[in-house]
């Protein structure tokens, strides 16, 4: 499955391709610009903001890649996509082959092309960024282009799977970690069943990330590909609750991968936080993204004119841009540090600003006040200044004594991070859990129960889609090895 | 899966369902709940399991028709399927031999109380059950409670059945009469609040099973949060049962009203659309 001979750097077509233009000519091409829906249109609908590249744009951008002898970009990718190989396939206009290269290592390329923080990963390791002081090759855009092209072509290839080896494997959770693990195990010949607690497949991709960033039909198409590889997905089933681990073992499952995600929202424990209209970003986004609140769903959602989102991460940006789309007059980010320290991707911050989101940086909520019915009406904010760098390396926020202001709000969305979901760890006796609630695993992602591996947010506590996918791949390789020597 | 095997009306607005769910029937314990969703665009609503039959592979649910989502569920008939059903969720009731256990249920809260009464009886307790309702036709599961309790006291607000009066009157009568080692209460938030205030006076440890608004029911959203002993807890994963003397029932009651207006509007629309069809 890692046989890349057909696409190795030494294949004649690639040698030929390198000679068609000089490196100098390649490096003078400017990086492609992603087309976006106009801000004043997109902030009123749920359409995808980034519109993708045209074929011509992709062909030209692919030319920028120098097909380095020792590509550094690949090492920046948590799932080790053979980046030069897929880009060179685009350059020679073999887009379906480019997509096939992506699928060798990534179960969800159209998703990754949209939500990966490429600027911190592959593109940060690109020779353009590293040595040439220029904008990196738009690896993310090209990945998305190849995956979208393949999907639209209706000629999606199914990655080659080894013949079934007769070993059954169970997966907890159909989010990025679980799907990536499932795909890799299917390729290795295992019979994989994924158990999903919710009624929809996709985990955080469905309940968390809004459609204007990641449309559901794109996730569904990638899930369909994984199903085509023989992976079975059972919804509405919680391992440890609906069916026990012992029962799974009795049914012949030899290994279990836990990718149950983070999901337990954190609150600040300040007065008034349980008032009506104060909720977690998980709740807000789940109601809207998963349940269709405000569109066609029976599930209600509270939205108002003055919506404050507490936090500065990607989820906070998703929530605030959603609030704007639901008609908020003032959709605000309230963040205790300055914009520079915000963990959100630069692109998300840029998009939010273009859409009219207001930024109240160096402000921290200390209390919420409500009306007689208990609905939040105002919030008290402590103004902050930046002090010395803290453990995260970012300058820490320090209170300015006495600098407190009160603002009007009718909805507050707390988006200050999540803790691991205790449901699965507490339901499988014998799993070692850290004091933070994460599952304790070895370097190989093996838990305290040898046949159980884990990855993604249940191990990391709250990270990215791609890191979860990387864990899924790594755990698949390790579990395969374990089972081959123990079965 | 999720096929409705039996439907019965306890009253015009309270429906009893027996639903095919073999895995849940096998796994559930007293205190557990499920989440159900009717239709592709339906809402996820929590319902406590009233009973289960492992040979038939079914669970029993009692649903009160209050909003659009429960109305859609109540409109389903035998042979129909519930689109989505997941569980059992929550922590099971802590069952042990306390001595004398007083189980006090009001309205449809009587349904989730039934498995607790059964389990408490099985554990060797003397079980006194108090069922409260506004009037006679709203008294449910009396027979099943009789079969599992040493004594059943019925209280109706209007005196049409059993004794006239609210649930606390019935509880106080028992507390004055004999020693009670544990009280379990399930019902509307206001009812549980007054039950808790009363049993606190008499120093009787009390558990309350809470039914709050939930979305996923698995700890993800935090919609169900309640304050217990000054700390925020999630009913779905930390509960649904808590020390009733520590629960902030006023806050719970307030939060239950979060979507009151939206729900009322949606219900009116739903009623217009179903009657015009």
UniProtKB/TrEMBL annotation, chain A:
The keyword GTP-binding does not apply. InterPro entries: DPD_II (IPR028261), FAD/NAD-bd_sf (IPR036188), FAD/NAD-binding_dom (IPR023753), Helical_ferredxn (IPR009051), SudA-like (IPR006004). Residues 42-154 form the Dihydroprymidine dehydrogenase domain. The keyword Hydrolase does not apply. It is an enzyme of class 1 (oxidoreductase). Its EC number is 1.4.1.13, 1.4.1.14. SUPFAM superfamilies: alpha-helical ferredoxin, Nucleotide-binding domain. It holds the Pfam family Pyr_redox_2. Keywords: Oxidoreductase. GO terms for molecular function: glutamate synthase (NADH) activity; glutamate synthase (NADPH) activity; iron-sulfur cluster binding. Residues 168-472 form the FAD/NAD(P)-binding domain. Gene3D superfamilies: Alpha-helical ferredoxin, FAD/NAD(P)-binding domain. This is Glutamate synthase (NADPH/NADH) small chain. The lineage of its organism: Bacteria, Pseudomonadati, Bacteroidota, Bacteroidia, Bacteroidales.
Automatic annotation (TrEMBL), chain B:
Its cofactor is FAD; [2Fe-2S] cluster. [2Fe-2S] cluster binds at residues 221, 224, 236. It is an enzyme of class 1 (oxidoreductase). Gene3D superfamilies: Nucleotide-binding domain of ferredoxin-NADP reductase (FNR) module, Translation factors. GO terms for molecular function: 2 iron, 2 sulfur cluster binding; ferredoxin-NADP+ reductase activity; flavin adenine dinucleotide binding; metal ion binding. Its EC number is 1.18.1.2. The keyword Glycoprotein does not apply. Keywords: 2Fe-2S, FAD, Flavoprotein, Iron, Iron-sulfur, Metal-binding, Oxidoreductase. Binds 1 FAD per subunit. Binds 1 [2Fe-2S] cluster per subunit. It comes from the Bacteria. Residues 1-95 form the FAD-binding FR-type domain. Pfam families: DHODB_Fe-S_bind, FAD_binding_6. NCBIfam families: PRK06222.1 (NF004862). This is Ferredoxin--NADP+ reductase. It comes from Microbacter margulisiae.
């Amino acid at each position: 499955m890692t046989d890349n001979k057909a696409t190795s750097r030494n294949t004649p077509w690639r040698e030929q391709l390198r000679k068609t233009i000089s490196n100098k000519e390649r490096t003078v091409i400017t990086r492609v610009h992603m087309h976006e829906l106009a801000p004043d249109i997109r902030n009123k609908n749920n359409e995808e903001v980034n519109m993708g590249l045209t074929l011509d744009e992709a062909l030209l951008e692919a030319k920028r890649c120098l097909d380095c002898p020792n590509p550094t970009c690949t090492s920046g990718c948590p799932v080790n996509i053979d980046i030069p190989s897929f880009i060179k396939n685009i350059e020679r206009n073999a887009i379906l082959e480019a997509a096939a290269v992506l699928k060798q290592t990534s179960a969800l390329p159209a998703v990754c092309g949209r939500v990966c923080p490429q600027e911190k990963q592959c593109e940060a390791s690109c020779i353009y960024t590293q040595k040439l002081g220029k904008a990196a090759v738009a690896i993310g855009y090209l990945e998305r282009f190849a995956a979208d092209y393949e999907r639209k072509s209706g000629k999606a290839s199914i990655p080659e799977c080894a013949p079934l080896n007769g070993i059954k494997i169970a997966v907890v959770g159909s989010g990025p970690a679980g799907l990536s693990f499932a795909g890799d195990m299917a390729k290795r010949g295992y019979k994989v069943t994924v158990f999903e607690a919710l009624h929809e497949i996709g985990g955080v991709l469905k309940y968390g990330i809004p459609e204007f960033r990641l449309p559901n039909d794109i996730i569904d198409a990638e899930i369909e590909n994984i199903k085509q590889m023989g992976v079975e997905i059972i919804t509405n089933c919680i391992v440890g609750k609906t069916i026990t681990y012992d029962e799974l073992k009795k049914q012949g499952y030899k290994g279990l991968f836990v990718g149950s995600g983070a999901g337990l929202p954190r609150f600040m424990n300040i007065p008034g936080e349980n008032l009506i209209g104060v909720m977690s970003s998980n709740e807000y986004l789940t109601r809207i993204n998963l349940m269709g609140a405000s569109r066609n769903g029976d599930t209600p959602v509270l939205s108002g004119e003055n919506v404050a989102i507490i936090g500065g991460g990607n989820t906070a940006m998703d929530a605030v841009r959603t609030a704007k789309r639901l008609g908020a007059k003032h959709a605000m980010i309230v963040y205790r540090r300055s914009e520079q320290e915000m963990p959100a991707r630069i692109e998300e911050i840029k998009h939010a600003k273009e859409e009219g989101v207001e930024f109240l940086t160096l402000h921290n909520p200390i209390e919420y006040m409500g009306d007689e019915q208990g609905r939040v009406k105002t919030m008290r904010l402590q103004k902050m200044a930046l002090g010395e760098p803290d453990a995260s390396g970012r300058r820490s926020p320090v209170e300015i004594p006495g600098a407190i202001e009160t603002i009007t709000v009718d909805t507050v969305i707390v988006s200050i991070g999540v803790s691991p979901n205790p449901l699965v760890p507490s339901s499988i006796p014998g799993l070692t859990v850290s004091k933070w609630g994460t599952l304790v695993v070895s370097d190989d992602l093996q838990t305290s129960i040898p046949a159980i591996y884990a990855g993604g947010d249940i191990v990391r506590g709250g990270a990215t889609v791609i890191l979860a996918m990387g864990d899924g791949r790594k755990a698949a390789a390790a579990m395969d090895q374990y089972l081959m020597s123990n079965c | 899966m999720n096929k409705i095997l039996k439907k019965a009306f306890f009253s015009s607005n309270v429906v009893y369902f027996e639903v095919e769910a073999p895995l849940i029937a096998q796994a559930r314990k007293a205190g557990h709940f499920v989440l159900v969703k009717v239709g592709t665009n339906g809402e996820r609503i929590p319902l406590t399991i009233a009973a289960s039959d492992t040979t038939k592979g079914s669970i029993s649910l009692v649903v009160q028709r209050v909003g659009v989502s429960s109305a859609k569920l109540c409109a389903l008939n035998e042979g129909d399927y519930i689109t989505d059903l997941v569980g059992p969720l929550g922590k099971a009731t802590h069952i042990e031999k306390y001595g004398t256990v007083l189980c006090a249920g009001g309205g449809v809260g009587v349904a989730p109380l039934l498995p607790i009464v059964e389990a408490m009886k099985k554990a060797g307790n003397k079980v006194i059950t108090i069922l409260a309702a506004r009037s006679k036709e709203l008294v449910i599961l009396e027979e099943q409670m009789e079969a599992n309790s040493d004594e059943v006291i019925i209280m109706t607000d209007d005196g049409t059945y059993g004794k006239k009066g609210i649930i606390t009157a019935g509880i106080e009568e028992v507390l004055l009469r004999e020693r009670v080692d544990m009280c379990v209460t399930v019902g509307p938030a206001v009812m549980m609040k007054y039950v808790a205030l009363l049993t606190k006076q008499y120093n009787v440890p009390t558990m309350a099973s809470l039914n709050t608004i939930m979305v996923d029911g698995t700890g993800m959203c935090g919609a169900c949060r309640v304050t217990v002993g000054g700390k925020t807890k999630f009913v779905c994963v930390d509960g649904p049962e808590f020390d009733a003397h520590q629960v902030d029932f006023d806050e719970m009651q307030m939060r239950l009203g979060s979507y009151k207006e939206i729900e009322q509007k949606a219900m009116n629309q739903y009623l217009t659309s179903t009657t015009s069809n």
